[in-house]
């Protein structure tokens, strides 16, 4: 398909060096590509544990399609009975459901005290309960030390809390930005350590653009550039750069930090800043947590919805939100993302015109009630 549109794609080929003075890229197959405009889309690499045995068969990371295909092939070839996931972030949480759907006993370990640290402890508690409900064992405060070949199972993970048997071990420890090539030609790095770009995706070198997980993005709530390696952001940055390189005029106005994942029957989502981040960026954060139901009371079947709002005490402006529940979570966080994008205050959010039907929510939605409750704290 690329070839039909005049795009020459070289797979299984790496860049060995870039000569910015000559405007050329030197490839591992010995060829040299000249350029007028260069786009850095080098992404990020999966973090790998530097412990003995990390390279054994059956130990995987999951960052891209190639990794996913390797995991799938291994699961198809081996009769895996037990899985251990190292890291309780997004990848770790989502892979719990994938392994359990195949009938594989699953344990998750993390050196931190709770899963998905972006969310507050009261919401993380719901996640742990959901893991337990689906026979996933979560082991917080556990440090991996080594991996060995097993006896009854293919592998054994040695931790500071004891040994864990496994047929497959998945490392879900996050990502590290891949900026070596950009640094090699003197492109400026941002405060986060990722490539610094402007609103048009241009770097400090006029002829070089950067997009995706290798570069920073402007956070509209924090008011500064941050590192947020998410796929939807990469898509928008790529389109912005492409339009500008093609002679158009596109500006990527930034993000508010919206994110979500699914954990069995739980929806988990957040947007904006946490209280800790708000303090870091110079705000005076005040927060409130609402525990309610996601639908109108007559339609409720006992579903739970937790919603937390964070606002600036000085201005009443919304700074962030997070939510966990069985339904209606992502839609509410998306609404609050628009509020963050527009810089709305709690007073404005408390009377937002939201679509109402009892099957979707009350006449006073959880968003209204949470905003009005937090307003009273500011009075």
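-> sequence recovered:
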């Amino acid at each position: 398909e690329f070839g039909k549109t005049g795009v020459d794609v070289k797979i299984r080929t790496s860049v060995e060096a870039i000569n910015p003075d000559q405007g050329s890229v030197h490839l591992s197959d010995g060829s040299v590509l000249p350029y007028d405009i260069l786009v850095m889309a080098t992404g990020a690499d999966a973090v790998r544990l530097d412990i003995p045995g990390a390279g054994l068969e059956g130990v995987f990371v999951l960052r891209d399609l190639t990794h996913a295909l390797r995991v799938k092939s291994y699961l198809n070839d081996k009769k895996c009975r037990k899985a251990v996931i190292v890291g309780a972030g997004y990848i770790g949480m989502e892979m719990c459901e994938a392994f359990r759907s195949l009938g594989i006993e699953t344990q998750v370990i993390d050196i931190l005290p709770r899963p998905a640290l972006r969310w507050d402890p009261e919401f993380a508690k719901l996640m742990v309960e959901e893991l337990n409900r689906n026979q996933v064992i979560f082991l917080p405060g556990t440090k991996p030390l080594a991996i060995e070949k097993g006896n009854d199972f293919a592998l054994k993970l040695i931790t500071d809390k004891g040994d864990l048997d496994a047929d497959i071990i998945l490392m879900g420890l996050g990502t590290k930005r891949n900026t070596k090539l950009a640094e090699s030609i003197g492109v400026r790095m941002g405060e986060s350590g990722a490539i610094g770009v402007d609103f048009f995706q241009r770097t400090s070198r006029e002829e070089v653009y950067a997009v995706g997980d290798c570069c920073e993005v402007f956070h509209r709530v924090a008011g500064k550039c941050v590192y947020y390696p998410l796929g939807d952001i990469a898509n928008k940055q790529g389109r912005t750069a492409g339009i500008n390189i093609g002679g158009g005029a596109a500006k990527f106005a930034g993000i508010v930090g919206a994110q979500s994942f699914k954990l069995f029957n739980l929806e988990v989502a957040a947007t904006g800043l946490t209280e800790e981040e708000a303090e870091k960026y110079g705000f005076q954060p005040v927060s409130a947590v609402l525990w309610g139901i996601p639908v109108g009371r007559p339609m409720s079947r006992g579903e739970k919805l937790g919603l937390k709002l964070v606002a600036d005490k000085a201005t009443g402006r919304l700074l962030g939100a997070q939510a966990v529940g069985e339904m209606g979570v992502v839609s509410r966080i998306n609404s609050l993302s628009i509020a963050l994008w527009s810089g709305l205050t709690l007073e404005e959010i408390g009377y937002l015109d939201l679509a109402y039907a009892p099957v979707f929510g009350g006449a006073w939605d959880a968003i209204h009630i949470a905003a009005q409750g937090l307003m009273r704290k500011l009075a």
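The longest strand covers residues 285-292.
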